[in-house]
Amino acid sequence: MYDVVVVGQGLSGLLSAIWAGEQGKKVALVSKGTGKLLQSTGFMDFYGKKPATEMTKEAVDKFKQLMTKLNLPYLGDFGSKVSVVTGSGYLKETILYPETVVPVPDSGRVLVVGFTEIADFQPAFVKGNLERERPELVVDTLTVSLEQKSLRTMTQLDAARLLDKKENRAKVLKQIKAQMQKRNLGQPELYIFPASLGIENWRTVLQEFSVELGAPVTEAPGMPPNAPAVRLFESLRKAAIRMGTRFYSDTEVIGSHVEENLVRSLKIQTSNHTTEIIGRTYIIAAGGVLGGGHVMTAQGLKDTVLGLETDAYGQYSVCPENVLLVGASRGTKELHCGITGGVSAIQSSYESVLSLTK
Ligand SMILES: Cc1cc2nc3c(=O)[nH]c(=O)nc-3n(C[C@H](O)[C@H](O)[C@H](O)COP(=O)(O)OP(=O)(O)OC[C@H]3O[C@@H](n4cnc5c(N)ncnc54)[C@H](O)[C@@H]3O)c2cc1C
How far apart are alpha carbons 355 and 348 in whole angstroms? Predict the structure, then answer.
């Protein structure tokens, strides 16, 4: 028997598993897929319908402490939004962002650098939109080659993995410097790259690029997969494993056995068998409609996890006493269009795990 069974390995599920593990709980995590983290920017946005509270601050601080411990520090503060540039050149307001990201200045000169192999990040397009967003900014562009052949279109993640290697970084830096000199481009205050500044060696890539180029560099996340999201997912998953979480991957929860308003077990199904898993407490982090935990019907949202009745907003009509809901599993009453956003996912995971100690 587990102390805690978590359903879902998105941001909410992984944080819940790690924080429950920190309390010495024996944790299992069951998930049928990887969640939305891998499709996200890796930034933590705030979309909540309810205003931020002291609890939001506590949860955000706890997340930042965790990420520092995992050697993937997050910057930003719960009280203030910052403008960061996306892979389309539009600005996005966010709360927390990784160290590979630098907020865009209001004025001055920036240089957008693309890779010929990556179709999803077009420097001219970024420039057009960024100049509309920040008319005081002078935006230059250039494109260099990763000098790699691929049978399929390369993604930002492919570029990130290539830039983990010193020889590839050297080729890219050489081309940037040569083009800047040839075109007599002025020194920018910020270099904007696709979200591809390394995976394993992101710190070295960041340091080497900013030192060699003589100015800060930033990633601009766009079409997934984005390196910051992959780094975050991988480091949270590894942390949960290190804390002792038992992962049941590619495993779907297809119902529950409830007695006296307590969930006694979950029915779980893998590709070749169906069985049960038993816990004292169940944390449902199944991501709502977008994550697969709810389906939309003519009568409103329906739960796909415990198989219990919900209201039209996806909230259990009678929530079993040993069930904690996090992220979009809390239903659409609390969420803007059912989209959790990183900050609400962090807060609800933190609140749920705090209640384990009571
Ligand atoms: C495409 C996209 C991009 C986004 N980008 C951002 C962003 O950049 N920044 C931001 O702040 N927010 C972003 N969001 C909002 C996002 O909803 C939250 O930030 C957060 O990642 C949600 O995490 P979660 O863990 O609550 O849900 P999810 O990530 O959806 O995870 C749900 C998990 O539950 C599992 N699951 C569902 N049903 C079952 C079942 N029956 N049995 C077993 N497992 C089950 C799924 O497989 C998955 O592992 C984005 C949303 C989308 C759709």
Answer: 11
